[in-house]
């Protein structure tokens, strides 16, 4: 089973504020799933997203 991260964990990992994280969620910039009112981030999808962002931003 896939590991899921909470909003607080993602905020701490990326060292961003809650408003920034919520903006990323609102514009669907970051991969997430909503279960009822809870928002979770699949760890493997988040890692893929991060690698893709690094490749795009640093031309790796």
Index terms:
single chain; 60 residues; alpha+beta; Multidrug-efflux Transporter Regulator, Chain: A, Domain 2; three-stranded antiparallel sheet; 3 helices; 3 strands; 55% helix
Report what the structure shows:
The chain is an alpha+beta fold and about 60 residues long. The protein has one domain (about 5-60): Multidrug-efflux Transporter Regulator, Chain: A, Domain 2. Helix content is about 55%, strand content about 15%. It contains 3 helices and 3 strands, in the order βααββα. Strands 1-3-2 form a 3-stranded antiparallel sheet. Strand 2 and strand 3 form a beta hairpin. The longest helix is centred in the last third of the chain and has 16 residues, at about 45-60. The protein is globular. The termini are far apart. The relative contact order is 0.18. The mean pLDDT is about 90.
How would you summarize what this structure contains?
This protein is of the alpha+beta class and 60 residues long. The protein has three helices and three strands; from the N terminus they run E-H-H-E-E-H. It has a single domain (4-58), classed as Orthogonal Bundle (Multidrug-efflux Transporter Regulator, Chain: A, Domain 2).
């Amino acid at each position: 089973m896939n590991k899921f991260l909470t909003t607080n964990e993602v905020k701490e990992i990326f060292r961003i504020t809650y408003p920034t994280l919520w903006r990323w969620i609102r514009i669907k910039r970051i991969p997430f799933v909503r279960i009822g009112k809870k928002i979770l981030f699949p760890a493997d999808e988040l890692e893929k997203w991060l690698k893709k962002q690094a490749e795009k931003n640093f031309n790796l």
